[in-house]
């Protein structure tokens, strides 16, 4: 089907290029995104009032879409505050600390645990569980908070999510679009996921250690809440108020709290909870832990302290998400949000601005195996720019089917390649708002995390695409 691109498509693409350029230059992109929303609004509605209203409405849309993530991060931070205050966190991580004795061991240990946890119940809940427990240990042995965020992000939202071998949400979408069994896509993705994962994580770790030696490393810390500037401050003060609970109580709670989260994991597997449902279970458990521990540690002011900890958590959550909402608002316009906000002004048969651009690219390149691999990667990456990673992977499957039929290349390999590219870009390693769970738990800027991930992920995609040439 021929895709008819309009001025709206070209303006959106131009602003994507501007945003990427500003990110590379380490400049804030909020104003660029607002200008992009305003210009798209004028093109869509033809009126200044419609454009101005579209700016506000797009912010509301983005806030609604991100609210679940804001809530889980805020609640986990609130719970972590009381655990650190009482010294429970210190007691809880002490058995693990003996194994994470260096920055390198902390990086790879956190990453591998994150990958395994993400296979079973996806990365966002895994970030909350792994980060809250292991981050203080990592900081103590010298791994920067941004390094810990990179490990959780690359292994969870990158390696685990791009393969998705347990829940199988991603390969199901791409396989259906390509018209092949899910098992073929999963089998074809194994070497690609391994190559992408190894190249990206090794490159990221090497670049981190290199910059630390040179003294050019920037941790990009953001305030945890009023009166504190970093996770190190929290970790260093752990145990200062541990006398509010007896040593026996701390030990029991240090055992009970991980068991409660393990029970969440078991429930996710037994009840087949995914995504938002899994996150809600973790969030509800964290609230109950917060309440019980606060009432135990503040017997006289427990009711007021519960509210105080929640306020601290929400202050942190909205500080982190404040600069992200305008940027997310722009990129959400690349999918169904555009029609929701501005009406049906895109051409007949359009599947959203981003998907239209990806389809148009596929229709205007030569048909051969090598170009098919490059096109699958580029199309997957483009469709991932909406920050979902999943909205465009069906298109990746369709394009793989097109190139496979025309060139007799492996449809399964091309499908898996597009899936890997879409999820590594949009699932949470390059697009700033998709990075928020890991960035927020570690108290670092999602924009700095995106910049740190950019070169390793691009190198990984290049090597993986080259490898795909020999597999198709």
Automatic annotation (TrEMBL):
Q: Does the keyword Hydrolase apply?
A: no
Is Transmembrane there in the keyword field?
yes
Q: Which UniProt keywords apply?
A: Membrane, Transmembrane, Transmembrane helix
Transmembrane residue ranges: 6-24, 31-60, 66-88, 100-120, 126-143, 150-168, 188-208, 252-272, 278-297, 309-333, 421-442, 454-471
The protein, known as: Transporter
Q: Specify the domain of life of the species encoding this protein.
A: Bacteria
């Amino acid at each position: 089907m021929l895709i008819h691109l309009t001025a709206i498509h070209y303006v959106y693409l131009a602003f994507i290029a501007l945003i990427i350029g500003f990110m590379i230059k380490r400049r804030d992109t909020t104003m660029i995104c607002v200008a992009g929303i305003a210009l798209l609004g004028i093109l869509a509605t033809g009126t200044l009032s419609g454009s101005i209203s579209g700016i506000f409405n797009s912010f509301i849309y983005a806030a609604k879409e991100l609210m679940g993530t804001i809530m889980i991060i805020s609640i986990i931070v609130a719970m972590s505050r009381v655990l650190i205050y009482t010294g429970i966190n210190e007691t809880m991580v002490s058995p693990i600390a003996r194994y994470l004795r260096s920055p390198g061991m902390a990086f790879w240990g956190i990453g591998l645990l994150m990958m395994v946890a993400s296979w079973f119940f996806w990365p966002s809940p895994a970030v909350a569980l792994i980060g809250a427990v292991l981050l203080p240990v990592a900081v103590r042995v010298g791994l920067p908070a941004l390094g810990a965020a990179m490990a959780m992000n690359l292994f969870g939202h990158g390696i685990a999510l791009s393969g998705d071998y347990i829940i199988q949400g991603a390969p199901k979408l791409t396989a259906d679009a390509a018209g092949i069994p899910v098992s073929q896509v999963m089998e074809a993705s194994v070497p690609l996921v391994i190559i992408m994962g190894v190249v990206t994580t090794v490159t990221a770790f090497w670049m981190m250690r290199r910059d630390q030696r040179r003294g050019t490393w920037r941790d990009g810390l953001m305030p945890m809440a009023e009166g504190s500037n970093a996770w190190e401050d929290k970790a260093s003060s752990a145990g200062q108020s541990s006398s509010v609970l007896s040593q026996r109580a701390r030990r029991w709670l240090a055992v009970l709290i991980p068991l409660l989260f393990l029970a969440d994991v078991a429930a996710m597997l037994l009840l087949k909870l995914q995504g938002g449902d899994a996150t809600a279970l973790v969030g509800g458990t964290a609230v109950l832990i917060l309440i019980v521990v606060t009432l135990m540690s503040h017997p006289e002011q427990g009711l007021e302290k519960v509210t105080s900890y929640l306020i601290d958590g929400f202050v942190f959550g909205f500080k982190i998400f404040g600069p992200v909402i305008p940027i997310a608002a722009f990129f959400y316009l690349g999918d169904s949000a555009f029609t929701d906000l501005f009406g049906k002004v895109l051409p007949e048969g359009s599947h959203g601005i981003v998907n239209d651009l990806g389809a148009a690219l596929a229709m205007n390149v030569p048909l051969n195996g090598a170009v098919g691999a490059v096109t699958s990667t580029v199309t997957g990456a483009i469709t991932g720019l909406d920050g979902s990673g999943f909205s465009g992977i069906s298109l990746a499957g369709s394009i793989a089917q097109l190139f496979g039929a025309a060139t007799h290349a492996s449809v399964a390999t091309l499908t898996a390649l597009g899936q890997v590219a879409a999820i590594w870009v949009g699932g949470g390693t390059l697009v700033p708002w998709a990075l928020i769970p890991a960035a927020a738990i570690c108290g670092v800027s999602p924009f700095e995390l995106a910049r740190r991930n950019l070169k390793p992920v691009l190198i990984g995609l290049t090597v993986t695409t080259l490898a795909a040439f020999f597999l198709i």
